[in-house]
Amino acid sequence: MLSFPNAKINLGLNITEKRADGYHNLETVFYPINIKDAVEITDNEHISCKIHGIDVPGDANDNLCLKAYHLIKADFDIPLQQINLLKNIPVGAGLGGGSADCAFVIKLINEKFDLGLSVEKMESYARQLGADCAFFIENKPVYAFNKGDEFEKCEVDLSAWFKVLIKPPVHVSTADAYALVKPQKPLQSLKEIIHLSPTTWKNKVINDFEISVFAKYPQIHQIKTSLYDAGATFALMSGSGSSVFAIFNEPVKLPELEKDNLVYYNI
């Protein structure tokens, strides 16, 4: 069986406090976008994961897709599977590609073996793999809070806007980004702002990681500046970086940004 996990962007990201368990509480809006991997599961004599496409750091045996399989295998007597993963979503870009892949594996296994898992149960499995993994089970815009793994429905629709995403040749470590961020409660919750028109988002919908990430990687800051110079209504770094997205009133081409970066149009 084959499926196509998609990426996400963060419409705002406020790091509100550091928790006693070492994690951080935050608030953000996860929004799905049309940049996709491909994942396939097939019956096999032994469990394995083969990764193709974009190079993924680390051992394939530690891939989140395999961990998703083992979580369900512990509760259900399902056959051994080979997981084939074609990576297209940029890595280290704040787009949640790995989280999407493992969540879609959970959904594939549920469908293939007719396990009858509820959305809540699949989200429970996904939460064990990463804070944003559960989002990809329903894969709809949500306001996320606590560790980023608790959700409320969010009526945000950017389908009428032209969306651009820029991925510079920079890998931002999520751990390093969190180590440098200074948690603080925002003056106004993202939950209240996000329902306003995107024309009002600039300087209101923010990403707390931008301060430290821009200081270390000024080329990411320059991309955001260039997007506004090109007429973007709104631009922001996604997650802990390094990708930057923007929304425009109409289709654009950005040849000057294509020279040194991956550029995706109408995501």
How would you portray this structure in words?
Pathway: Isoprenoid biosynthesis; isopentenyl diphosphate biosynthesis via DXP pathway; isopentenyl diphosphate from 1-deoxy-D-xylulose 5-phosphate: step 3/6. This is 4-diphosphocytidyl-2-C-methyl-D-erythritol kinase. It catalyses: 4-CDP-2-C-methyl-D-erythritol + ATP = 4-CDP-2-C-methyl-D-erythritol 2-phosphate + ADP + H(+). It comes from Pedobacter mendelii. Keywords: ATP-binding, Isoprene biosynthesis, Kinase, Nucleotide-binding, Transferase. The protein has 267 residues and is an alpha+beta fold. 27% of the residues lie in helices and 28% in strands. It contains nine helices and twelve strands. It has helices at 64-73, 97-112, 119-127, 135-138, 174-180, 190-193, 210-216, 218-229, 255-258; strands at 2-3, 6-18, 24-36, 38-43, 48-53, 81-87, 142-145, 150-153, 162-167, 234-237, 244-248, 262-265. The strands form three sheets. The protein has a four-stranded mixed beta sheet with strand order 1-4-6-5, covered by helices on one side. The longest helix is centred in the middle third of the chain and has 16 residues, at 97-112. The mean pLDDT is 95.
